[in-house]
Amino acid sequence: MTDDARNQMEILAGALPFLKRYDDQIIVVKYGGHAMGEEAAAARFGRDMALLEQMGVNPVVVHGGGPQINAMLKRLNVQSTFVNGLRVTDAAVVDVVEMVLSGTVNKQVADCITRAGAISVGISGKDGGLIRARKLTRTYRDPDSNIEKVLDLGFVGEPEHVDPQVLELLIAADIVPVVAPVGVGADGQTYNINADTAAGAIAGALNASRLLMLTDVPGVLDAEKKLIPEMTVAEARAGIAAGWISGGMIPKIETCIYAIEQGVKGAVIVDGRVPHAVLIELFTDGGAGTLIRP
Ligand SMILES: Nc1ncnc2c1ncn2[C@@H]1O[C@H](COP(=O)(O)OP(=O)(O)O)[C@@H](O)[C@H]1O
Ligand SMILES: CC(=O)N[C@@H](CCC(=O)OP(=O)(O)O)C(=O)O
Asked: Is 65 annotated to bind ligand?
C-alpha cells in the first residue's frame, strides 16, 4: 500500500466520530453570492454537498446572489442602494431580484449538486408555502432630530412563517433542496429576503443541527482584522454596536444569534473560498471560520 493510500484511509477513519454525530442530521448551508465565485469553486461546492448526502447527512442549501443581482441590475440600468447590508427594493428591483435568485442562480446551484451525483431540486421560498413573508420594518434614530424614524426598504421582507413540509418531503426522498430567498406575503406580494435571514429561519424551522454561513472572508474579523475563532452572542452584539462588525456581516451575525435562540446547536461563519470548507468544519476537530455560541 502507498503512503497516499494509507493517508487517505487515516483521514476516512478520523472522520468516523463526526459521521456518527451528523448521521441523519439536517445541516443548513447558506451559500453566499460572493462565495460562488468561479466555476471550479461552484463545482467543488456541488461535490461537497453530494458527498454529505452520500454520507447520510441531510444538507439543505439556501443561496444568496447579491453580486449576481447587481450585475443584472447594471445590465438593465436599474439603480439600487444598500442600507445596513439590505438592498432597498422597489417594484422594478424586486422583479429583477426574483428573476435572478429563483431563476438563474437557483438552477445553477442545484445543477452543480446534481452533476456531482446527488439529486438536487431548486425551489424558491414561494414554492409549497415554504416562506410566508411580511414587509420588514426597521426603526432608526435620526442623528439630526434624535427622533426614532421608520426605515422603509420597499419590498424587503422577513419570514413571518416557515412551513418546512416541502423540504421534509424532499429530504425524505434523499433529494438535496436548494432554496432561493424569495418569499410571498399573505396578499401575494413578492418579497426580497436577505439570504442569511432566510437561511436562519429555515434552519430554525427544520430544527437543524448546524447552520453554516459560507462567505468570502475567513470568518468574523476583529478591529485589527484578525480572525476570531469563537465568539459569544454578547460579544457579537457588542461588535455590531461598536461598528467593527458592519455591512453584510450584520445580517449574518444576527441570523446566527436568531438560529441559536431557535435551538440550532451551532452557527458558523465559514470562508467559502477555502476548498472543502464545509467538510473541514463538520469533520475535523479544529473546524473553520468563526463559531458563534450562546
Ligand atoms: N468584522 C467583520 N469581519 C468580517 N467581515 C466583515 C466584518 N464587518 C464587515 N464585513 C464585511 O461583510 C462582508 C460579508 O458579507 P456579504 O458581502 O453580504 O457576504 P455574502 O455575499 O457572502 O453574504 C465581508 O466581505 C466584509 O466586507
Ligand atoms: C434584502 C436583501 O438585501 N436581499 C438580498 C438577497 C440576496 C442575498 O442576500 O445575497 P448574498 O447572500 O449573496 O448577499 C439582495 O437583494 O442582495
From this structure: yes
